[in-house]
Amino acid sequence: MENPFIGRFITAGAVPAAVAANGDDAVTGWWDCIFAWGRTIVTAAVYTKLIVLFLFQVARVDGQSMAPTLADHDRLIVNKFTYQVSAPRKGDIVMFYYPIDPDKSFVKRVIAVEGDTVRIVDGRVSVNDIAMDDSFVLPEYRSHEDVGPQTVPRGYYFVMGDHRNNSSDSRDWGMVPKKYITGKVQVRWWPLSHARAF
Predict the structure, then answer these.
(1) Most buried in the list 5, 74, 137, 157, measured by CB within 10 Å?
(2) In whole angstroms, what is the distance from residue 23 CA to residue 26 CA?
(3) SS3 193
(4) What are phi and psi of 89, to 5 degrees?
(5) How far is Cα of residue 133 from the mean position of the Cα atoms in its chain?
(6) Is the torsion defined by CA of 138, 166, 131, 68 positive or negative?
(7) Domain coordinates of the chain in residue numbers?
(8) CA distance linking residue 185 with residue 12, whole number of Å
(9) Which CATH code fits 56-192?
(10) How far are the Cα atoms of 31, 77, 112, 173 from residue 115, in angstroms, in the given order?
(11) Count of CB atoms within 10 A of residue 71's CB?
């Protein structure tokens, strides 16, 4: 009777001999493996770039202008696709290029859209003569300036920070053109204890 253990040993021992006899094939195999890995890495990089360009972006909050809704160093996921198929709406928290210096990005809340008339009296905001529900603004964050009335031009948006007395926004430097709005803040994912969707 044939010993099955000897057969297995001989079969297993034959593999290194075959590889040794075909060294060129082994080198070619390594290059194929390296090429496959390189192609996978490049493909992943391209997909990541496309996602960042057209779908989602990770951003970090710098400053307290959106407190208490967003805090300094919060990490966000910004949906860049949504405004390709729809327009920003009142109440949306958006990321946009700062109109005075487009190399910088800001995060603020949309207060009024094109065609709306904004008036601020003693810090209280009205849009189209209807008082805005700004219960999310803490009493110590309220401001007391008078602005307007101002009508938002076509293709522009009036934005403000939730920390009204510590925010540089449309009250100071004017409206934001839609082409400068890069996306809607969709999720705060860090810190995990304060993670939420907007």
Answers:
(1) 157
(2) 5
(3) helix
(4) -120, 160
(5) 26
(6) negative
(7) 4-54, 56-192
(8) 59
(9) 2.10.109.10
(10) 62, 29, 8, 19
(11) 14
| CA pair distance 100, 188, nearest whole angstrom | 27
Contact status, residue 128 vs residue 114, Cβ threshold 8 Å: no
Q: Which residues contact 36 (CB under 8 A, 6 or more apart)?
A: none
Lookup: tokens for 76: 């966000």
Please tell me the distance from the alpha carbon of residue 159 to that of residue 111, in angstroms, as a whole number. 5
DSSP 61-111: --SSTTTTTS-TT-EEEEESSHHHHS---TT-EEEEE-TT-TTSEEEEEEE
Q: Annotated catalytic sites, by residue? A: 65, 108
In the beta sheet, which residues pair with residue 77?
A: 58, 187
Cα–Cα distance measured from residue 40 to residue 101, given in angstroms and rounded to the nearest whole number: 38
Rounded Cα distance between 75 and 195, Å, is 9
pTM of this prediction?
0.72
β partners of residue 117: 151
10-residue mean pLDDT series, the chain (198 residues): 41 42 63 72 51 72 94 95 92 95 95 96 94 91 92 96 94 95 94 91
Helix (H) or strand (E) holding 186: strand 181-190
